[in-house]
Amino acid sequence: MADTFTITNYVTYLDVEEGLSPHTIEAYMHNVNRYISFLRDTGILSPSGVTREHVTEFLDTLQSFGLSQTSISRNFAAVKSYHRFLLRENILSSDPADTIQVKASRRRLPEVLSVEETIRLVESPDCTTPAGVRDRAMLEFTYATGVRVSELVSMTVDNILFKEDIVRITGKGSKERIVPLGSTAKEKVLEYIRTSRSALAGARSRDILFLNMRGTPLTRMGFWKILHKYAILAGITKHVSPHTLRHSFATHLLEGGADIRIIQELLGHANISTTEIYTHVDREYLKEIHRSFHPRA
Q1: Catalytic-labelled residue, pool 172, 177, 220, 228
Q2: What are the chain's domains?
Q3: Does the structure show a pLDDT above 60 at 235?
Q4: Residues 95 and 83 sit within 8 Å (Cβ to Cβ)
Q5: Above pLDDT 70, what percent of the chain?
Q6: 157: closest CA among 125, 129, 198, 122?
Q7: Which of 175, 204, 243, 283 is flagged as catalytic?
Q8: 82 in catalytic set
Q9: Is residue 148 among the annotated active site residues?
Q10: Is 188 a catalytic site residue?
Q11: pTM across the whole model
Q12: Which of the residues 74, 83, 246, 247 is marked catalytic?
């Protein structure tokens, strides 16, 4: 069947025009393909046949499947992006999704570790083993820089400027940012490079910093499993995900008095509103302190 829905061109648009990461493009395409499959099932074989009613029926179908409001919102964001593309390419003259509004999902506060919990976590690896040396360096590096897990597993050795104590991080949309590397993380990463990494490195290692025991780049799932293991060892009962250290990095900076604009820069957020969620976390922390120490709280 011909690509009547111009999916190939849409992927190119997301990549070249929108500058989205491969992971984000994959998520968009998953949702758009679901939408197109729904349209075909209802007899719509090209974008020109789509009406507002089709879009609302698609959203109602998602709700009937039991999807969360967050998932429905993500699907609708992909649908709107797809129709904007069709308008831009003059494939459609109007947007059937334009006047539809989806109830915004309530933004959950990210799970955050306390400073004491974070220290327990990063100090959990047994540094008498090569894997432990790597894991300690990896956890210290993640907490010191606030990197996303995708940025962590793609980090290269030459992007760490040890003399300047900084790290070059390539984030979403291939945007580069500079983040300081703390003394503890620097020490542990240097120890790992001198010992474990040199022992692990092989023909397929390239310049990737963190390698698995086969000498190939660590995957996101591989890091998640490592993190999960040390969360248990550290006796942490909270749900700990790869993003938890990033959230904790930002929250601890805010609690320490850092300006939110600086935190935005360090996290690589394009929009300050994304960073502002940490001000809510900080308010919860302040309320907790108030409850704990104020005589009339």
Answers
A1: 172
A2: 7-88 (1.10.150.130), 115-293 (1.10.443.10)
A3: yes
A4: yes
A5: 90
A6: 198
A7: 243
A8: no
A9: yes
A10: no
A11: 0.61
A12: 246
